[in-house]
Amino acid sequence: MSAVYETVIGLEVHVQLLTEEKLFCSDKAEFGALPNTRVCPVCLGLPGALPVLNGLAVDLALRAALALGCEVHETSVFARKNYFYPDLPKGYQITQFELPLATDGALTVTTDEGERTVRVRRIHMEEDAGKLLHDRVPDQTAVDLNRAGVPLVEIVTEPDLESPAEARAFLLELKQILGYLDVSDCNMEEGSLRVDANVSIRPVGATELGTKTEVKNLNSFSAVAKAIVVEVERQKALLDAGEPVIQQTLLWDEVVGTVRPMRSKEESHDYRYFPEPDLPPLKLDRARIDAARTSLPELPTARRRRFVEQYGLPVYDAGVLTASRGTADFFEELADAGTDAKAASNWVMGSLMELANQRGGEVSVLPVTAEDMAELLALVADGTISHGTGKDVLALMTESDRSAAEIVEAEGMAQVADEGLLEAWIHEVIAAHPDEVRRYREGEDKLFGFFVGRVMSLSQGKADPRRVNGLLKTRL
Amino acid sequence: MAVERSEVTRIAALAKLEFEDHDIERMTEELNDILEHFRVLQQVDLPEGNHDARSAAPAPERRPGTLARDELSLSLSDLAPSHEEGFFLVPRLPALDAGTRDGGAGEGENP
Amino acid sequence: MSIREIREAFNAGSGGPEAALEALAKIVRGESGNGSLNAFLCTVPEDALSEQAARAPTGRLGGVPVAVKDNLATSDLCTTCGSKILEGYVSPYEATAVRRLREAGALVVGKTNMDEFAMGSSNENSAFGPVRNPVDLARVPGGSSGGSAAAVAAGYVPVALGSDTGGSVRQPASFCGVVGVKPTYGRISRYGLVAFGSSLDQIGVLSRSVVDAAEVLGVISGHDPRDSTSSEREVPDLVGACSGDVDGLVIGVPEEYFPDTLDVQVRARCEAALERMEAAGATVRRVSLPHTRYAIPTYYVLATAEASSNLARYDGVRYGFRAPEAASAEAVYCRTRSSGFGAEVKRRIILGTYALSAGYYDAYYGRAQRVRERLACEFADVFAGGVDVLFTPTSPTVAFPLGERVADPVSMYLSDVFTVTANLANLPAISVPVGEVGGLPVGGQFIGPAWGESTMFRAAAALERAMEGSA
User: Fold this and answer.
1) Which residues of chain C fall below pLDDT 70?
2) What does each C-alpha distance from C131 to C69, C136, C142, C147 come to in angstroms?
3) Is residue C77 a part of any domain in this protein?
4) Contact A281 B63 (CB under 8 A)
C-alpha cells in the first residue's frame, strides 16, 4: 500500500546578465565567436592578472534583487570558491558566499492549483566558467574560455514549491520579470538561464523535510517539470519499498527520461571559500539602492492586474499581453491612442502575434509602431476598410514603410459605400440568379448569405457588408 | 589534536598534489610541527564582532568601455602546452562528468 | 652612479645606453664562471638593450638600468617566478609597475632569481639554484628577492624591483647591505605581480641609496584602474622628503622587536643607529606592540591560505609546464603540479589548503583575519599616540650560511618575525644598512604609518647620512 506523500521543491537558478562586457574584465560577453578569442589576461587566469568589477553588472543584479523583493545589503563580499576543473581558469570561481548581494525576497506564482508565494533565500553575483567540448578533438576535451567570466546571478529559493507545475510557473514568472528588467534574456536553450532542482518528499502532515536530491542538467522548462515528476516517483518507490532516499546529485537524461547519479566524488565539495583579497567589499549606499528601486518598471503581476482594471480586459488577455514588456508596452500605446481596448487586445493577440511568430520574435520586433497600428485600426473602426481587409493591410505594412492610409489608397482597398455602385452590383446579382431569387422569396431565408457573398465577390471585397445587407433586404 | 596522515592525504587530493607514502609521512610531521606553533592563535583575546568588510574601502566599479582590454602580445598556441583549432586541450574527461557542473560554472556539452 | 647622474646624462642626450650596456656587461661577466651569484634568470640581449635605449623616452628614470624580480610580468623576458612550472613562460602582457618604469625611460636589463613564487627567506627555494650573497659567497642573500638584492649589492645595477609579502624586499636588503623598501599596501599596482598572498603582496624597491629608492618608488606608485586594491591617493614627493631633517621626529622603539634572544651584535648596531638619530635631533620613545607575538602564525596562516588559491591556476592547461606522461585530465593536474612545484611551495599549499578546509577555517583562517585586524589597530594606536615612525632590526640575524636552515622550515618561518607585521598591518617599511657584524651587513627597519612614506623616507635618509658621517 502506498503512503500519501507531498513534494517539496527548491530551485537554484543561474541567470546570465545582459552586459556587453564580462564581470571582471573588458572582454565582450558574446556568443558565437571563434574559440578563445574573447579572452584577456584576466579571464585566462594568467599569472599576475587581477579582476575589476563591472558596475553595469552590479546595476542589473541590484534590479533583479529589488524586483524579487529582496533585502539588498549595503555591503556584500566576493569570495573565492576553490576547485579544479578545466573550464575554470584560475582554479577558483569568484562568487559571493557569506555576505551575498541580497537575501529574503519572495515571488508569488499562480497555477491551476492556486497561488503560491515562494521565498527567495538569496541572490548573489558570480562569474561563469568556460565551455568544454568533448567531441571536437579525438580523445581530448577542448576548452573554450570565451564564456569564462561572463556575469551571472544565482537565485536560490526556499523549498516552498510543491509541484512540478509550480516549479515551471515560478521559472516562467522569473523569466518574465527578468525580461521586463532587461536583466537577462533567460534563454534556457542558449544557457542564459540554468536551473538545478532540489527535490524531496515527505508523508503528508510531516513537519520535517525528507532527504533531498539535487537534479541537474535541466535544459528547458519542460525538462524541469518532467525531471521533477520522475524524481518524485523514484523517491516514492524507494520509500514505499522501505528504502531510504540517499542525498546525492542526479543528472536528468532527456532522451531516456530518467535521472542517474553523478559519478564525481564527495571530496570535491570542500570548496574552501574565503573572501576574495583582490576585490574590496561591494558597497551599495542607500541612495543607489533607492534610486534603483524607483527606476524599476511596473512588473508583470501589477501590470496584469492594471490591464484588467484600467482597460476592462479579460484576465486571459491581460496575461497574454503582459507576457513580455515590449508587447505590453505596444498594447498600451495602442489603447492609449484611442483604439478600443478590446479591439486593440484582439489585434495584438491575433494578427500581430501571428506575424511576429512567423518572424520568430515578439510583437515589438515588427516594423510597425503602435502609432501605425492605431491609424490602421481607426480605418477599420470608421468602416473605411473591413476587418478582413485590415489584416491584409497590416501584412503589407510589415513589408514596407507605407502607412495604412497610403496602402489603402494605393491598393484601392477602401470599402465602397457608394449606393449607386452597390445598387448596380446588387442588380446584376439578382438578374443573374432568378432561380435563387424565386426560392428566397418563397421562404428559403438561408439563401440571403448567398446573395451577400455574390455581391462581395463582385466588388472584390470592397463593398461595405453592412450596407450590402440593408440594400439587399429591400431589393429582394 | 594532531593531524592524521589520512587528513593530509585528503588535503593533498584537494590541492591536486601527489605524494609518495614517505612524503606524506614527512608532510604530516611537518604540518603538525607547524600547527603546534600556530596553536597560540587560539589564545588571542579578541573583541567581539567583525568590522572588516564594513570598514574597508569599497570596490571600485568599472563602467563599460572605460577600461581597455589588455591585448595579448603572444598567441595562445605559443602559450599552451596542448592547443588545436583555437582550443586548449586536455585528455578527454570521463563522459559522465560532462553536464555535471554546478549551474554557476558551465555545463559541459554531453558527448 | 646614482639615478640622478645617469638620468641627467641620458636626458641631456649625452648618455645613451652606456649605463645600461655597462650594467649588462657587468652582469654577464659576473654571472659567468666561478663566483657567479646566480642572481639573474635571464638578461636582455645586448642589441635588444640598445634598441630599447634608442626608443626610451627621457624621464625621471631616463637611461637607468633596472633589474626586475622574476615574478613581475614582462613581455620581452621570461617570467618564471623561480619555478619549474613556469619554466620558459613569457608573459603576453606587462605588469603596470614595469610599464611605468619603461615610460619613465628606465631600461630593464634582466629578471632576477628568487625563491619559488616568493616563498622563502634565503633564496634557496629557487628551481634554478640558490643565489649567493655578494658580501660572502658562502652565505644566503636572504629572500625571496635575493636575486634583486644581490644584483644591487654587487653593483650590477643601481636599482631593482622586488616584491614583499612578509619581508621579501627588506630582509634580503638587510642581508646584502642595501636599501629595501615596501610601501603601504595599495600604493603600487599589483597588476602583473604574480600573486603569492594577495592581501599582503606589495612591489618594493632595492637600491644602494635611500634617495634612489625614493626616485623609483615615486615612478611606479599611484592608482591603476587594473588593480582594485590600488589607492587613488596622491603620491607624495618622496625624493624631496629625503632631504628633510628629523628635528623633533618621534621614533618609537617597540620592545617586542628587541627580545632577549636577539643577537647582541645586531642589537648593538640598532641601538647605535638610534643614538645617531637622537644626535640628529630625533626623540626616541620606547613603545609596546604586544600582539607581535602572534604575528608569525597569523602571517603564515593568511599567506599560505591565499597562496593555496593563487597557485591553483598552475594546472598545465593554458600555459606553462605540463607533465608529459599525463594520460587523463586528473593526471594533467596532479602530475603537473606535483613535479612542477618545489618542496617549500607544496608545503605551503598543503598548509594553506588545510587552513581553509572544512572544519578548520574558523580556527585558522577566520581567527588569523581577526588577529590581523587587532594587530593593525595596535599599530594605528601607537602612531595616533604621537609616534611618527617606528624603528626595529630588519632581521634577528645577519646572513646565514647556505644550507643551514633548509631542513628546518619552522626556524626559517620564525626568522621573518620583524618584517611580517608591516605586511599584516598594511604599513610602509624600509630597511637601511646600519653597520656590520663580522663583515656581514646589518639592517635597521623604519615602519611608517599608513600612507606615511614621506616621514619614513625622511627618517631613513637622515639615518643614511648619519651612518655615512660616521663611517
Assistant:
1) 470-471
2) 13, 11, 9, 6
3) yes
4) no
